[in-house]
Design brief:
The chain is α/β, with parallel strands linked by helices and 454 residues long. It folds into two domains: 3-220, Spore Coat Polysaccharide Biosynthesis Protein SpsA, Chain A; 226-434, UDP N-Acetylglucosamine Acyltransferase, domain 1. The chain is built from seven helices and 37 strands. Helix 2 links the parallel strand 4 and strand 5 (69-72). The mean pLDDT is 97. The structure holds uridine-diphosphate-N-acetylglucosamine and calcium ion. The site of uridine-diphosphate-N-acetylglucosamine has 27 residues, from strand 1, helix 3 and strand 10.
């Protein structure tokens, strides 16, 4: 059965009170619509048709890299009208999964179950039983068979007692959509073209209407305001945290963990509280991440321990390194095995070789540091002259004394020593000592200035 995906995304999202269109609001760091498109791709949909209205340009720009067909719904006349505007591009055969751009957590597995029970000529619905169904369309059954969907505003008192609701997710025959949608009327309490009216049409045509329920209720939760967005974010994070724990990750507190992207893990990874992982990250066997770290697009090899409040972006970290607390690795930081990067050390676009250490208050920018070198406290690579950036190259087993400035471009040879407090502007040869500071001045029995009497 060839499958299209139709995503309804024309709604205004007024209650978000945002200049950003609702479907671009982020859940776990990605736009709501990105989650739905990702799900459609996982189902190998033949085509993904997105219905847009408000903020169409922004939405299309955000997904310019995706194979999505865009259809504009100029006026929001209802869900049935929204799907109707896709008919000119909708295939005549196969089925369509109809999803909402603001229902981001629906799982491919649930949709696959829906596809499995649906027939090529009928309708499949995702329904859910809620303790309080107020506001939703109700699933009216007779002897267990679905008869109709009645919107809350159109429902009788008796129908309002029904707890089974329409989640707004459907699998419908394309041939039948072409047949049914032009026949919809807006003769109802809201004066809208209801997509839900196709259920009664299917029954009139003796077509099957079937349903599945999602495994977890939050899969079908929609986002209308920021309160719902935050609640769904938590549910989504809880589910991700659970999946990681099932893979063997030791999350000290899963309710204080956020993953905004994907995380690959080895065995016995331990993550303390309030850690945020963003983009695509990898943590090797036995990696420990201390409290409050923010780690983005970074790979950390086995055995490395990151102390609290360290921030990494686009870095590569070797095995058994020790980092932090309060360390910052910026894009292009590459640390070999057994490196130590301590508190208030910033590394940008630099490689640090095996076993080298920069333990306190240092900036390494556009630098190459060999192996076994020690970078003293307060060392700065002066990589920028105000217009251009230059490289600092430090060899193996070098020793840079505390509070030194290395003015790039400059090279410090293997085994070289730089005396503390030096401003180094010329290359330092292998195994030599360079000191750049004035001689210490001394005066015995020195009298400090006295306060002048008035
Ligand atoms: C709809 C269902 C209702 C169901 C509920 C689940 C109908 C008539 N009712 O309610 O049975 O319980 O969803 O949340 O379908 N949209 C458009 N264009 C429009 C109208 C809506 O693109 O003209 C989009 C919205 O952006 C949203 C989705 O369709 O993503 C659902 O619209 P919404 O207004 O939230 O649904 P309801 O009509 O309240
Ligand atoms: Ca709604």
């Amino acid at each position: 059965m060839s499958t299209s995906v139709i995503i309804l995304a024309a709604g205004k999202g007024t209650r978000m009170r945002s200049s950003l269109p609702k479907v671009l609001q982020p859940l776990a760091g990605r736009p709501l619509l990105a989650h739905v498109i990702e799900t459609a791709k996982q189902l190998n949909a033949e085509n993904i048709i997105t219905i847009y209205g408000h903020g169409g340009d922004l939405v299309q720009q955000a997904f310019a890299h995706e194979q999505v067909q865009w259809v504009e719904q100029k006026e929001q006349l209802g869900t049935g009208h929204a799907v109707k505007v896709t008919l000119p591009v909708l295939p005549q055969t196969g089925v369509s999964l109809i999803l909402s751009g603001d229902v981001p957590c629906i799982r491919p597995a649930t949709l696959q179950r829906l596809l499995d029970v649906s027939t090529e000529t009928g309708i499949g619905l995702v329904t859910l039983t809620l303790p309080d169904a107020t506001g939703y369309g109700r699933i009216v059954r007779n002897n267990g068979e679905i008869q109709a969907i009645v919107e809350h505003k159109d429902a009788s008192d008796e129908q309002r007692q029904i707890k089974e609701i329409n989640t707004g997710i459907y699998c419908v025959s394309n041939a039948k959509l072409h047949e049914w949608l032009p026949r919809l009327s807006n003769n109802n309490a809201q004066g809208e073209y209801y997509l839900t009216d196709i259920v009664a049409m299917a029954l009139a045509d003796s077509m099957q209407v079937v349903s599945v329920e999602p495994e977890q209720a939050f899969e079908v939760d929609g986002v209308n305001d920021r309160v719902q967005l935050a609640a769904l974010e938590r549910q989504f994070q809880t589910a991700q945290a659970k999946a990681l724990m099932q893979q063997g990750v030791h999350l000290i507190d899963p309710s204080r963990f956020d993953l905004r992207g994907t995380l690959k893990v080895g065995q016995d990874v331990r993550i303390d509280i309030n850690v945020i992982i963003e983009g695509e990250c990898e943590l090797g066997d036995g990696v420990e991440i201390g409290a409050g770290c923010v780690i983005k697009n970074t790979k950390i090899a086995a055995g490395t321990k990151v102390q609290p409040y360290s921030v990494f972006d686009s870095a590569i970290v070797g095995e058994n390194t020790q980092i932090g607390p309060f360390a910052r690795l910026r894009p292009g930081a590459k640390l070999a095995a057994e490196v130590h990067i301590g508190n208030f050390v910033e590394v940008k676009n630099s490689t640090v070789g095996h076993g080298s250490k920069a333990n306190h208050f240092t900036y390494l920018g556009d630098a190459e540091v060999g192996s076994g070198s020690n970078i003293g406290a307060g060392t700065i690579t002066c990589n920028y002259d105000g217009a251009n950036k230059f490289k600092t190259i430090i060899g193996d087993h070098a020793f840079i004394g505390s509070n030194s400035s290395l003015v790039a471009p400059v090279q410090i040879g293997n085994g070289a020593t730089v005396g503390a407090g030096s401003t180094i502007t010329r290359d330092v040869a292998e195994n030599s000592l360079a000191v750049e500071r004035s001689k210490q001045f001394a005066k015995e029995n020195y009298q400090r200035p006295q306060k002048i009497k008035k």
